[in-house]
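Example 3.
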Amino acid sequence: MTKSTDGPRRRRSPKGEHRREEILDAGMRIFARGGYSSASIASVAEEVNLTLPGLLHHFPTKVDLLLAILERRDINSLALVGSLDGNWRETLKGLCRVNRANTEIPGVVRAFSILNAESLIEDHPAVGWFSTRLAGVRERLAGGIRRGVEAGEVRADIFPEDIAAEIIGMMDGLQVLWLRAPGQTDIVAIFDGYIDRLIHDLEVKS
Amino acid sequence: MTKSTDGPRRRRSPKGEHRREEILDAGMRIFARGGYSSASIASVAEEVNLTLPGLLHHFPTKVDLLLAILERRDINSLALVGSLDGNWRETLKGLCRVNRANTEIPGVVRAFSILNAESLIEDHPAVGWFSTRLAGVRERLAGGIRRGVEAGEVRADIFPEDIAAEIIGMMDGLQVLWLRAPGQTDIVAIFDGYIDRLIHDLEVKS
DNA sequence: GTCTATAGGAGGATAGAC
DNA sequence: GTCTATCCTCCTATAGAC
């Protein structure tokens, strides 16, 4: 009853909790360099000055480590997801802010870009997470656009789900281009320009 | 002088040449399932009813096999690249045709989507190929749009390189979404709709 | 909570016969 | 051109001491 209740909180000692966070940070860095399958958890252990068994005490398997990293990302991005519920124009502008903020954390973007494609592999441990996440973001985005249609602000001859998929595809695709050639890709200007045109095209002409 | 001249042609026996093609096809299928690093060349050998050393006779290392697959893709896509040189509107419509044709070969799209992101990894054997390819396609695309500007058909206040990057990002990103949820993503309709709006937005208003 | 030591397995590549 | 047999390296994970 004291240990088997594995809720989101209720962790061990403060020191262990701190170690846990360190390991998650290091894991993110390692996965950012090589994705999941080609990365070794031994290198993660090395990054935090632990031996391999020492690390495995906190995360029994490599999959556990990956899922913990993904889970933490979910929690951290709740604030951003919250911004998907207001006015449709604000929603799209919010995505521009997310995109801009992402340029400050290329390591995180890198890890998730690689993991995103890698999770297309059958039986990859992250398939579930990315599928669920995609469905959720797409539904929220489509919902925002749909409310714009219902409010008479957005053209009624478009499909909100398709527009949502288009936007997500653009964000993800641009990130890969940006990571490959950062100096030649002004991802902020490109995405802002795209969203500006999209807003203009979606608006009901007055 | 007879063997050391390793030009693009000049292969061994007809039977060997046939085997070579079989192996490349099988390699594509295997990489489509798991990308490069998590795939084993032994499974490729199994697909063509060869032992591992038997396969390594044709491609000495795993990297050689990967590069041969990429090289062949280059040759096969020359026809498509050729279509990037005409009128800017036709160029963009040509991309729609490529996108539509891609829905017929999900295996190839899958392999290249995974490899594309995987090659972001430092020292990945495919970095060079994807970098060169991206630079080439982007330059050709931007060139087409630039000629549209010079012809007075396209607005002069846009950056052709940025628009080119935007389009490539959209194509690549949509492919990942489509591969993850094929039934819920009408990639042809979405990309066609995007290109239609883009053409409209780029046109100089008359 | 962290260590040493080690089991156990998979994958890439080579040597040499046919 | 294809095989059998083998080597070596790297990785995940476990056992058990401190």
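Residues 12-13, 15-16, 19, 50-51, 53-54, 57-58 of chain A lie near DNA strand C (CB under 10 Å from a C1'). Residues 1-9 of chain A have pLDDT under 50 and may be disordered.
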